[in-house]
């Protein structure tokens, strides 16, 4: 969703919020944004709109990975573990939410093994952002995380 100028001219904030609210009233409950839209301003807009909606009925997605867009779509991409963590924390603040339903990579950084990006994303969800990001994990992913982090650390004991 690009209400702040990535794909079109930006709309005034109140109009953008009213569009999101109207969509929700019509049964659309999945909202997808990105830290690069604006940049950052679309997440801020969505966050303001969410304050006026029943959060438990909304599925929120946002993306990371595009550091910047130069000119006509030349992109700087990053998928390092440190970048992923900092983006997640910044998105949570801009959206002003306690969790993101779907957090995913906008563009793949071919200089970083995808396992590093994906593993870091999942482990960071259980590490510093416990309770702030919900993820669905396969049995294999649960085993991987269990091997990396002792269960008593995840459980908070």
Architecture overview:
This protein is α/β, with parallel strands linked by helices. It has one domain (13-154): Alpha-Beta Barrel (TIM Barrel). Helix content is 41%, strand content 14%. The chain has 6 helices and 5 strands. The chain has helices at 13-25, 41-50, 81-95, 114-126, 139-148, 151-154; strands spanning 30-32, 59-64, 66-70, 74-77, 102-105. Strands 1-2-5 form a 3-stranded parallel β-sheet, covered by helices on one side. A two-stranded antiparallel sheet has the order 3-4. Strand 3 (66-70) and strand 4 (74-77) form a beta hairpin. Helix 1 packs across helix 2 (41-50). The longest helix is centred in the middle third of the chain and has 15 residues, at 81-95. Mean pLDDT is 80; it is low at 129-134.
SSE arrangement:
Elements: H1 13-25, E1 30-32, H2 41-50, E2 59-64, E3 66-70, E4 74-77, H3 81-95, E5 102-105, H4 114-126, H5 139-148, H6 151-154
Parallel strand pairs: 1-2, 2-5
Antiparallel strand pairs: 3-4
Q: Keyphrases for this structure?
A:
157 residues; alpha/beta; TIM Barrel; 3-stranded parallel β-sheet; 6 helices; 41% helix
Unreliable segments (pLDDT under 50, ≥5 consecutive)? 129-134
Query: Looking at the structure, what is the overall shape?
Result: globular
- Mean pLDDT figure: 80
CATH class: Alpha Beta
Please tally the helical runs, counting DSSP H or I stretches of 4 or more residues: 6
Strand content: 5-15%
Question: How many domains?
Answer: 1
Instruction: From the alpha carbons, calculate the radius of gyration and give it in angstroms.
Output: 17 Å
Q: Write the CATH fold name.
A: TIM Barrel
Beta strand count: 5
Structural class by SSE content? alpha/beta
Distance between the termini: 40 Å
Helix content: 40-55%
Biggest sheet features: 3 strands, parallel
The name of the CATH architecture is Alpha-Beta Barrel
Strand order of the largest sheet: 1-2-5
CATH superfamily name? NADP-dependent oxidoreductase domain
**Secondary-structure element series:** HEHEEEHEHHH
């Amino acid at each position: 969703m690009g209400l702040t100028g990535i794909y079109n001219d930006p709309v005034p904030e109140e109009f953008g919020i009213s569009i999101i609210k109207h969509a929700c009233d019509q049964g659309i409950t999945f909202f997808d944004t990105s830290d690069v839209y604006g940049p950052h301003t679309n997440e801020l807009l969505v966050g303001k709109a969410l304050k006026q909606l029943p959060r438990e009925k909304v599925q929120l997605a946002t993306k990371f990975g595009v550091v910047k867009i130069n000119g006509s779509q030349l992109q700087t991409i990053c998928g390092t573990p440190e970048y992923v963590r900092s983006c997640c924390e910044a998105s949570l603040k801009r959206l002003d939410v306690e969790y993101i339903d779907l957090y995913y990579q906008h563009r793949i950084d071919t200089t970083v093994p995808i396992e590093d990006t994906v593993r870091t994303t999942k482990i960071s969800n259980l590490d510093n952002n416990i309770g702030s990001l919900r993820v669905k994990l396969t049995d294999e992913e649960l085993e991987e995380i269990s091997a990396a982090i002792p269960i008593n650390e995840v459980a908070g004991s």
